[in-house]
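Hello again,

I reread your note about wanting to compare the complex against the isolated chains. To keep things tidy I'm splitting this into two emails, and this first one only covers the full assembly. Below are the input lines as submitted, including protein chains and any nucleic acid or small-molecule components. They are followed by the predicted structure of everything together. The single-chain runs will come separately.
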Amino acid sequence: MTIKKVIKGSGYTAVNPDEVQFLENILVVINQAGKIERIVTPNEADYDDVLTAAPEVIELAPHQYLLPGFIDTHIHAPQWPNAGLALDRPLYQWLNDYTFPLEAKYQDLDFSRAVYDDLTKTLVSLGTTTAVYFGTIYPESNLVLAEMCDKNGQRSLIGQVSMDDPELNPEYYRDESAAASVAKAETFIKKLLAKNQEFTIPQTPVITPRFLPSCTLPALKGLGQLAKQYQLPIQSHCSESDWENNYALEKYGKRDTTVLAEAGLLNEHSIMAHGTLLNDEDFSKYQKAQASIAHCPISNVYFGDGILPVKRILQHQVNVGLGTDISGGYSPSLYDNMKQTILSSQQLQSGVDTRIATEKRGVANSRVSAKTAFYLATVGGAKATNLKIGEIKPGCFADLQVVEIKPKPYQPQSSDDNFESLIYNTNENNIKAVYVGGKQVK
Amino acid sequence: MTIKKVIKGSGYTAVNPDEVQFLENILVVINQAGKIERIVTPNEADYDDVLTAAPEVIELAPHQYLLPGFIDTHIHAPQWPNAGLALDRPLYQWLNDYTFPLEAKYQDLDFSRAVYDDLTKTLVSLGTTTAVYFGTIYPESNLVLAEMCDKNGQRSLIGQVSMDDPELNPEYYRDESAAASVAKAETFIKKLLAKNQEFTIPQTPVITPRFLPSCTLPALKGLGQLAKQYQLPIQSHCSESDWENNYALEKYGKRDTTVLAEAGLLNEHSIMAHGTLLNDEDFSKYQKAQASIAHCPISNVYFGDGILPVKRILQHQVNVGLGTDISGGYSPSLYDNMKQTILSSQQLQSGVDTRIATEKRGVANSRVSAKTAFYLATVGGAKATNLKIGEIKPGCFADLQVVEIKPKPYQPQSSDDNFESLIYNTNENNIKAVYVGGKQVK
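Full-complex prediction:
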């Protein structure tokens, strides 16, 4: 395929949860389709020829590094204006006083456009090249979100949110019936697939029952059917908190995971958020179904009633991605959520109450490293979305970010030290460029 | 006293750990001494006259708010180049492979100047107007830190670090003897007090035994004596981890707190870092001594073996300030540490291991709010340092920061909502101005 541009520099890409590869002074050869055609290392004979032949060469400055763009596997787009608000409120008040009234405003498409324009720009500037969005119950507003993703250069999965149970949803903000939930989801799917013809970056519809407490069983089953019919990804929340976990047990006499699986909503295309209350039996079901968990570590501190045991889940061979869960989490940055992934795993290992003896305080062998957090934000997200992204390697879309570490009078450092420093110290200001499908979007 | 300038705008100041006062459209009248002479509210008769008479008026832009500058009550200045490094290493390796070799470099005063210039600028730009520093064992290098604070407009307490025990300190980085520890501390005190004559902002020496494991008892006692003689503040680490807590128990058959108290190091001028392993008996001793705890919530996740029960400590009437603990903590920002204060307290309340029943998982009634975190970063720090700072009120130094909340298409918000949003969403970019002693330093 024709070569479009070459990026020359050093970078990092995750190999597995414990290993990050340092790619020193490579050429990333990007083709017309926006994919990485080839990685050329300095010891290859045609390194200089590739450089000479390239129609465009972008050379990274000193102290700059290339990383895969990040994938936010769980974010509520309409809740963006509430980021950092009402986090000391219990879930009930948070939903009914802050969240549902805000989501209901998105009938207004101008309001939708203003918020979604700002949100998608912000995420791209933070290095998030793909996001898996919950939208609202309004198909037209969700299409505006897709337009803003395309406009600002972000790859996305967008969910028409389905919520039909009159018992737990307010009258002013719910689908009229199970049939309406399914019909509106299908309308959105068709319209988005049609819109994709006009877009530069294809945006994917995703089947999105809000969570078990807000959906009737007929709605869940209808949505499972729709997912199968259109072969689409699926997202929801699963065992996020004691309350949610107990809700399914009381209503169905079954666990969240089982109810979702029986409705046809747990398969290799599923991304389930949170999961702090999942148990080993659930993890086995996730592993068999090849379903993914979207770990939202900041949000979980407020609403999760405990810490997701990431290391144990990875040992169960279950895939885990990272999510910001705006506005259950306050930060739109996956850098912040990578840091919180490490902090939460450390806290799980240490425990919290020092009046308890050391050996009984926490859960041994729970700590994960910066490398694991980076794996979740890149490869984990790619596996969750089944897209060719999240790695610097041939065949993947050239969804990339260029980050710069401020040069300080450091002691000599290894590439591993530089990597760790980069995970901990990167913020919006030192993300110098972002590419999606090879096109510069920041 | 003569009026120098007036700042006109709205702001927030902490009243107690649960209450933040919204000061709407006030005039902050700053005198020649750099202190707040008066706060004028719009309903006062001479509001317009004060404005007219002021030699200089600074008016805040829309969406800007005035806050007291923050006080970082625990930060290791020489460790700045290591921020975000080696955080997956055990304490022993962290100290011996990363920390001590770096601290030993500060014999080089050019290196000292380069790092301390960058550090103090960074902190000021993050709204930290006062910092309580651990320096190194080199008096001349610590004086360079004082010069950089004065140059970049930061108020500080600076400690000549004392560490003389040959058993636990490396040969290349320790004081030669207990007598040398005390003599070097006194040299530094005298030189800094003399230097203060040249400075715009007075910098305070602080007695700084590193921690019990690195000091012999004669050094501790000698330093206690010195603190009394010069009436100086004191800082150290106290019960930071299981290891440190057990060290004193094994060596002295006494708790950290008791050994420090008996050496004359625990009084109303003491700021002790961490304290995650302190028990109720210790808290009573802190309360009686009127000593303060420097809470370093990010660092504690890595090295603290549990969470400091901030709410319980405040109920014991013990004062708590906030610290970044660079580089045990990776972030120089007290905004990040305020957020982590909230997150850690939430985690203490929720617990971590969801295999444990809800009611046994965490510690009820532990959660603190954004208001409490703000109180610690301002009033708590002021009480710890015994300086007239940390509040927007007459008699306090005009150490202030101006922060801006990006206007978004928000739903209508209360001043409480705005306050919370400001704590969660402020970063270096939206801290628009910083004042120390009424002088703009950012």
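For quick reference: The mean pLDDT of chain B is 96.

B.
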